[in-house]
Structures are given as C-alpha cells and as structure tokens.
Amino acid sequence: MNSKTHIVATIGPASKDKEILKKLIEHGMDVARLNFSHGTHQEHGECIKNIREIATDLNIRVPIIQDLSGPRLQNQEGHEFDKGSLEVLTKKDLEDLAFGIGEEVDYVALSYVGKASDVSLLRSEMQKLGKVIPIIAKIERKAALENLDEIIGVADAVMIARGDLGNEIPLEKIPFIEKDIIDKAKKAGKPVIVATQVLLSMTENPVPTRAEMTDIIYAVMNSTDALMLSEETANGKYPVEAVMMMERGIKEAEANLGDVIINDL
Questions:
Q1: How far apart are CA 39 and CA 100, in angstroms?
Q2: 163 close to 196: Cβ distance less than 8 angstroms
Q3: Which phi and psi angles does 125 have, rounded to 5°?
Q4: Whole-number Å distance between alpha carbons of 143 and 77
Q5: Residue 108 forms beta bridges with which residues?
Q6: How far apart are CA 47 and CA 38, in angstroms?
Q7: How far apart are CA 261 and CA 67, in angstroms?
Q8: Is the pTM of this model over 0.85?
Q9: What distance lies between CA 161 and its chain's CA centroid?
C-alpha cells in the first residue's frame, strides 16, 4: 500500500525506459513530472505514452505534470531566473504548452511565478488552446513570497522549489519559509509539493544521508501533500532506489503522526 503523501518523480534519461518506469510506479511513484527545460517534444511524447500504457496495465492512475522551463539563464551552477524577462511565459513555454495540452497532461507547473497575474496569464493561454487544466505555481523567487497569498489564491496547487528559492533567500531561512508556505496552502485547501535536493546524494549513492531522511520526515510532519525527486530520478544512478527510500521515509513519518489530511493531486 502506498503512502498517503504523494511521491512525484521526474522522468529523464535515467528513468525513461519502460522497465524502469514500471519499477518506479510499482515502488511508490504516484505522479510523473516531465521537465520541459530538457528534451524534445518527441521524447516527452514517448514518455507520456509509456507512462500511460504501464499505468493502464497496472490498473492505477499516474498523473503527469508538465513543468514549463520559464525564462532561465544557464550558469556555472546550472541555471537562474532571467531578471531581464518581462513575462514568466516565454515563446518556448507557449509552444510547449500547446504540445502538453494536445497530449492531455494532467497539470502544468509554471516556473518563476512572481505575482498572481502570472498564473492568470497562463490560464488565459490555456483558454485560447481550448482546455484549462490545473496550474501548479512554483514558489522560487522573493517576489513570489511577497505575493504569496494572492498566488495561492489563484493557483490550483503550489510547489516549493527550494533550489532557485535558495538563490534569492538566505539558506537558513528556507525551512521556515517551507513551513509557512505549507501552512498557507493547507489553510487555502490547495495541494503543496516540497521539491529540490530531497535525496540529492542518491544521484550518486544507493542510500541517502541521515539529513536527507530527516528532510523527508520534516516535510511530512509539516503536512506537505507531496515530495518531489528531480535529478535523483531523472539523471541519477539509483532512480528506483530513490523512490523506494522516499516511500520508506514517508511511511515512517505517517506511522508516527497518525492520520494526516492529504489534498489529492
């Protein structure tokens, strides 16, 4: 039996094969994330097809999140928000959105949200395409924290994207910000996902650090609805083990907390 807290796993080169996808689903992956900062439409389309075929064979539902890349610039450490961009929806995002709508993805994650109107703009673009699907607002900028209540109000769900958030906020403040966002999302009845570096060491190692396991427990104790794996399952050496370890941590937390209220993704 899967945990109540959902596990979101990012699909990439390390996990796109059908055999690995099947193992991920069997061992606790509840939701698949496709990161449109990487890969082609053909590659993402193949992943969507495989996920749905496997889920049908296993007689379970595996929702798919399309994560739009937004205005980002590559740097030595990976990427950062392009502060010169006037909108968080780029031309590439609009092309990707049309593809995702056509493939009937279940959720669209909007990167670098700064204000409520960013979410409303994405929703209006969906309307032009003839289908409005739930929007996950990624909280990863200081501006998003300043407009948090309004963003939560218009979004269908929120993601605490701690990687980029840590580029704008002192790292020691992140745990408290995480708790505050979870509390506000829960109060509004909106699902919330804790993301980034949850089991980062497992990109190279078959077991996590003690601190990483504590991170999982902490997030569940604070009533997050989901935890997300990024490079751990997209590019890591141990994608299946990462999902299994996250499931173990979540179940242990839930067993010690009793019943928790989970908003379904």
A1: 13
A2: yes
A3: -65, -35
A4: 22
A5: 66, 135
A6: 13
A7: 26
A8: yes
A9: 8
Which residues lie below 8 Å from residue 101, measured CB to CB, with a gap of 6+? 126, 129, 130, 131, 133
Architecture, CATH, for domain 6-257:
Alpha-Beta Barrel (3.20)
Residue 35's contacts (CB-CB under 8 Å, 6 or more residues apart) are: 10, 12, 67, 69, 230, 234
Evaluate whether 175 touches 218 at the Cβ level (below 8 Å): yes
CA separation for the pair 265, 107 (Å, rounded)? 9
- Can you read off the two tokens belonging to residue 92? 């590439």
What residue type is assigned to position 160 of the chain? Answer: I
pLDDT tens digits for range 205-252: 999 999 999 999 999 999 999 999 999 999 999 999 999 999 999 999
Distance CA 16, CA 39 (A): 11
Tokens representing 181 are: 């966002």
1 band by pLDDT with thresholds 50, 70 and 90? low
Based on the number of CB atoms within 10 Å of its own CB, is 38 exposed (0-12), middle (13-18) or buried (19 or more)? Answer: middle
Would you call 187 exposed, middle or buried from its count of C-beta atoms within 10 A (0-12, 13-18, 19+)? exposed
Secondary structure class of 232 (helix, strand, coil): helix
Cα(229)–Cα(11) distance, integer angstroms:
9
Q: What is the rounded radius of gyration, in angstroms, for the C-alpha atoms of the chain? A: 17
CB 99 within 8 A of CB 126: no
Given a contact cutoff of 8 angstroms between Cβ atoms, the answer to whether 192 and 160 are in contact is yes
Per-residue pLDDT tens for 94-105?
A: 999 999 999 999
